[in-house]
Design brief:
Blueprint lengths: L4 E9 L3 H12 L4 E5 L15 E2 L8 H11 L6 H20 L14 E2 L9 E2 L5 H16 L2 E4 L1 E9 L2 E9 L5 E11 L20 H7 L5 E2 L4 E8 L9 H4 L3 E3 L7 H4 L9 H13 L11 E4 L5 H7 L1 H11 L8 E10 L3 E2 L5 E3 L5 E7 L4 E2 L12 H22 L12 H12 L4 E2 H15 L6 H21 E2 L9 H25 L17 H4 L1 E7 L5 E7 L13
Parallel strand pairs: 1-2, 1-9, 2-6, 9-17, 15-18, 19-20
Antiparallel strand pairs: 3-5, 4-5, 7-8, 8-9, 10-21, 11-14, 12-13, 13-14, 16-17, 21-22
Helix pairs in contact: 1-4, 1-11, 2-3, 3-11, 5-15, 13-14, 13-15, 14-15
The chain binds flavin-adenine dinucleotide.
Flavin-adenine dinucleotide binds next to helix 1, strand 2, helix 4, strand 7 and helix 5.
């Protein structure tokens, strides 16, 4: 077949903040690293992060408060040892980024400026105007290039090489010309980002199709806490494009059709700055009860006019542009229309606090690591706080990179890859290209996204979730038996890529729905109308879900690591 085999110490899939930070650390320590990314690194979704990155820097704040807010925000499902690690290292993570050249917005006295975010006891989100992610990504990418990391841009990682409990590489194809290659390595890291594209209304980039999750799950490895999908309160009405929490952090008010500041009813103390799950449910509730606004009455207002033009132009210029571009509304002059939008995945590839991927509750996969949004450490539990996920990507990217260096130094052997390792990928691509039928990728994807929004969204019941299991099984059957691709060429075949991505979305969506169906309680972002309270006695545990060869899901559970922050009822 003549497929090239490239050998590295470490191969990283994903060039967002997590992957790039890890790569930079590894290369700096003298390891030979390849980063495979289906996008140009600077187009990774990390670059879209607007609002900020948390760290307890000010005198009024403390690491313990940051921990407490994170654990409470998580509705007590977070593993407290991991939360402690991340919060403790957050200030150093900011200083590290700064030393490398990231320009944070500053106060008049020269200290790093921090803005309030939802569920936080103190203004804690460091920012670079409303372009925080892009500023950080540019900085880290520049430094990774400087160290000599090899980036394989616009290469699509299709599978891992997983044999005898060990991962020893990745098989991939060049999106430009469908050339195949094998990347053989002692250590492999997945940093493939989030998956909110499985929902109709979402805030995510088109590339956020959760590939990494399904690639891992298809080998019978578990996915953790997949039922916890974060719906951000403020997506632009109709298309879900994000209006960062910075808008509420800076003082934006939510209003219904009666002009009421309705958060007074739902979170009397924190109002608009309650945690995201609470605000999203409040918005959907107002709309359901007939107090929505806009042409379809399916939105509420966020009003920022009182902040004044100067502050908006100084701190929220991108958000203003987005609302003008997509809705024709200028937040300097009038309130804009928003509603909840699928945003972030709390669950993912289970890992320990040093990034080792779990095979089950007690064992680990040799040579395999994860970091960033695709992973579940679990630092966010049932609901993540705003500005904790850029922190997670940057901190764990760096930290897991260091843990890989340590493991490599202690000696991981290379299992040599052969051309045979690419066979499954090539067979799947050939089959996908040659399949004929009446269904199309965009058609099936629309049905998936609409049904996930309707049945596994902000509010869920036994009935909607059970219905969604059936819908997903039928969509998967149609995808495998009856979905055609019109473009048969090898040059930038986006039809083929989108088909592969749809296959991924159909698989991990079943994990979301089956895990949600079994969790008969409401916790954080998972709200069951038929079980509307938290049930610590039966459900203070992580879901570990596995897929068998026939595509069926089985569920297991894993203990939560508790700690000094004791279980309490969550109010804001
Ligand atoms: C609009 C928006 C605003 C946000 N704002 C904030 C904020 O202000 N603060 C905050 O804390 N969080 C925010 N978040 C969340 C946060 O930005 C992300 O969780 C975080 O940046 C994810 O980083 P990552 O490195 O894990 O993945 P990403 O940055 O998403 O990168 C994923 C990488 O994986 C690659 N990839 C995926 N699949 C494949 C494949 N099959 N083959 C090859 N490459 C692949 C992609 O090319 C990409 O390089 C925001 C998210 C969105 C969508």
């Amino acid at each position: 077949m003549g497929i090239p085999i490239y050998t590295y110490d470490a191969v990283i899939v994903g060039a967002g903040l997590a992957g790039t930070a890890a790569a930079r650390e590894l290369e700096k320590a003298g390891k030979k690293v390849a980063v495979i990314t289906k996008l140009h690194p600077l187009r990774s979704h990390s670059g879209a992060a607007q609002g900020g990155i948390n760290a307890a820097l000010s005198d009024e704040d403390s690491i313990e408060l940051h921990e407490f807010d994170t654990v409470k925000g998580a509705d007590y499902l977070a593993d407290q040892d991991v939360v402690e690690l991340m919060c403790k290292e957050a200030p150093e993570t900011i200083r590290w980024a700064e030393r490398m050249g990231a320009a944070f917005s500053r106060n008049e006295d020269g200290t790093i400026a921090q803005r309030p975010f939802g569920g936080q006891s103190s203004p804690r989100a460091c920012y670079a105007k409303d372009r925080t992610g892009l500023t950080l990504l540019q900085t880290i990418y520049e430094q990774a290039l400087r160290e000599g990391v090899t980036f394989w841009d616009e290469w699509y990682a299709a599978d891992i090489i997983y044999k005898e409990g060990k991962v020893s590489g990745v098989v991939a194809f060049n999106i430009r010309n469908l050339e195949y290659a094998i990347f053989n390595a002692k250590a492999v890291m997945f940093a493939t980002g989030g998956y909110a594209r499985a929902y109709k209304i979402n805030s995510n980039a088109h590339a956020n199709t959760g590939d990494g999750l399904s690639i891992v799950a298809r080998h019978g490895l578990p996915l953790e806490d997949m039922e916890f999908v974060q719906f951000h309160p403020s997506g632009l009405s109709g298309n879900g494009v994000l209006i960062s929490e910075a808008a509420r952090g800076e003082g934006g008010r939510l209003l219904n059709s009666k002009g009421e500041r309705f958060m007074e009813k739902y979170a009397p103390n924190k109002l608009e700055l309650a945690s995201r799950d609470v605000v999203s449910r409040a918005i959907i509730n107002e709309i359901r009860e007939g107090r929505g606004v806009g042409p379809r009455k399916d939105a509420v207002y966020i009003d920022l006019v009182h902040l004044g033009k100067d502050l908006i132009m100084e701190r929220l210029p991108e958000l203003r542009d987005l609302a003008i571009t997509f809705l024709g509304l200028d937040m300097v002059k009038e309130p804009i229309l928003i509603s909840a939008t699928a945003h972030y995945s709390m669950g993912g590839i289970p890992m320990d606090k040093d990034g080792h991927v779990r095979k089950n509750n007690t064992e680990f996969v040799e040579g395999f690591y994860a970091a960033g949004e695709c992973s579940c450490s679990s630092v966010h539990g049932a609901n993540r706080l705003g500005a904790n996920s850029v922190l997670e990507a940057l901190f764990f990217g760096r930290h897991v990179g260091q843990s890989m260096i340590q493991d490599l130094n202690e000696g991981i052997t290379l299992r040599k890859a052969t051309e045979d390792d690419a066979k499954a990928m090539i067979d799947e691509i050939t089959l996908t290209l040659n399949r004929n039928g009446t269904d199309t990728v965009p058609g099936l994807r629309d049905e998936l996204q609409q049904s996930m929004t309707d049945n596994a969204g902000v509010f869920r019941t036994e009935e909607t979730l059970a219905e969604q299991v059936n819908i997903l099984k039928e969509l998967r059957r149609r995808f495998h038996e009856n979905c055609r691709i019109d473009d048969k060429s090898k040059i930038f075949n986006t039809d083929l890529q989108e088909a592969i991505e749809l296959g991924h979305m159909l698989d991990f969506s079943l994990f979301i729905v089956e895990s949600a169906l079994a969790r008969k309680e409401s916790r954080g972002a998972h709200f069951r109308e038929d079980y509307d309270t938290r049930d610590d006695e039966n459900f203070l545990k992580h879901t570990m879900a596995y897929m068998d060869e026939n595509g069926n899901i089985t569920l297991d559970y894993m203990d939560v690591t508790l700690g000094k922050h004791e279980l309490k009822e969550r109010t804001y």
